[in-house]
Amino acid sequence: MSKQSKIYGTQVNKMRSIVMLLSVAVLIYCCFYVLAAGESEQIVWQRDEKKVAITFDDGPNPETTTPMLDALEENYAKATFFCLGQNAGYYPETVQREYNLGMEVGTHTYSHVVLTSLSASALDSEISKSVDAINKAIGVKPSLMRPPYGAVNKTVLSAVGGYNLCCMNWSLDTEDWKTKNADATYNEVMKAQDGDVVLLHDIHEYNVDAVKRFVPNLIAEGFQLVTVPELYEARGETLEAGTVHYRTDPTTQAGTETAPAASTDSAAESTTASE
What we know:
This protein has helices spanning about 5-45, 60-75, 85-90, 90-100, 120-140, 155-160, 175-180, 180-190, 205-220, 230-235, and strands at about 50-55, 80-85, 105, 145, 165-170, 170-175, 195-200, 225, 245. The protein is an alpha/beta fold. It is globular and about 50 Å long.
């Protein structure tokens, strides 16, 4: 064998060795990636881990919604934001950030009126305008709607079902609009139990401090803070269009009539674009 042939053979062997080493490295990386992803998925959806869905109504308001989003992001927590269509139109960039952070974005109607008091045409307008506003902000139509004051009936459920929306009420009301106090809001949220859907409002300054406190403390107590759809999916329950729900098991089916709550979020009626 000539000297040139030996050199060529040596080079080929080196190239083969390099290719083999690279192949092994890629294989090891893929194995670690799959294992890590599997462990992460198992952690997120472990059924025996306590879960709670924090929900916010009436926003967005950049001055208050933004620091709340900061607190959620810093703690790797999720929440659901039920936006008023008119506010989503004023502040689409805040709605976009909610969506980009993995929060669930739902509608709270367009202008915060009692849906059960509307004519068919007015009801349709409230729903369609709010859906369009959110779709314009994030490029995705919402699948959840929180009716103002929690008021629903067969007519409302039929109308929202036509837009592929499910009505989502709540199981724990902080009554933050009434107390107007961060400590009071914090104490109410910390009463949450596994499967609860907690009602707050992201338009109030006094809630910013409460959110910054209860988010890490709920996590420290073993809760996962998840979106409403994540909560239901983890429990193997569904959120069907045209139905109304309050928390995971039990649920209230279409046809149930709920009268307007005393004043769960009446502050929204006096909310301006600057709030």
